[in-house]
Amino acid sequence: MESGRPSDAGGREKSAIELENVYAGYGKSEILHGVNLEIPAGKITTLIGSNGSGKSTLLRAVLGFVPLSGGDIRLGGVSVKAMSRAELARGAAYLPQGKNVPDISAGRMVLHGRFPYLEYPRRYGPRDYAIAGEAMGQLGIEELAARPMAQLSGGMRQKVYIAMALAQQAPVIIMDEPTTYLDIGQQLRFGEMVRKLSEEGKTVLLVLHDILLALKLSDRIAALQEGKIAVWGRPEEILEAGVVERLYGVRVGRLETDRGIQYYYDMCQGCGAG
Fold first, then answer.
1. What is the DSSP letter of 173?
2. What are the tens digits of pLDDT across the range 93-104?
3. How is residue 158 annotated by DSSP?
C-alpha cells in the first residue's frame, strides 16, 4: 500500500499521473519529501491528511505551479517540466481551494475554462459558448449565467468554479476541497457528478477533509503525513491500516446496507492524532 503504485489482479493499471521521488516546496521550505505515487487513469483518487501535510502542494506540483527540487512528475506520460502552461491546462483542469471573486458574470467565469484552447486573437467562438453552457447545465446553474459572481452565495460560486473546470474538458480534473460551501444535499449531488465523470473516463484527483465522503467516493486514497505518503490503497485498506485514527483521532466504522457500504464516525478514547 505504501508504494503508491496501483495494481489489480489482472495486472498494472494505466496511470494518468506519475510522481517519482518528488521533492518540492516554496523557496527554502521543502514540503514534499521523496513522494512516489501513481494516480490510476479513469479513477477517483483522494488525498487526505492533516493541515500542512503537503496535499495542496502536491496538487500544485502536478500542475507546474510549484517547482521541483528533485524527482519528476509525468502527466499523460509526459514530464511536466517539458510542458508549456497551455499544454498543462489542456491536460489537467484545476479547481483551487482559495479563489478571488472577480467582477464578472457567472457565465463569463465558466467561459474561462476554454482559455487554454484559444488562439490569437483570443476570442470565444460558438463551440466555447456551447461547451460552457453544457457545463453549467451539468451543475444545474444555467439560470446564473448573467448573475455577477459577487452576488452569488458561497455554494453557488463553488458550483460556478466546478463548471469552469468541467468546461476545460481536460482528461484529468484536480480539485482542492471542492465541497467547501456546499451543503449536505449539494455534497451528495457533487459525489454523483464526480462518479459520473469517472465512469465517462475522466481521472479525478481530489483533496478532501471529509473522511467519510472520501471513503465513500474514492477508488483510491493516499494519506499524506509530513510530506510523505503514509498509506496508499483502496478505502477498505485505508481503514484496515488505522490511518484515520492516527491522523485525526477518530475511528471510522463500516456498515454494509441494502444501499451499499456506509461509513460513520466512532469517537474513540486514546486515539492519537498525528
1. E
2. 999 987 778 899
3. H
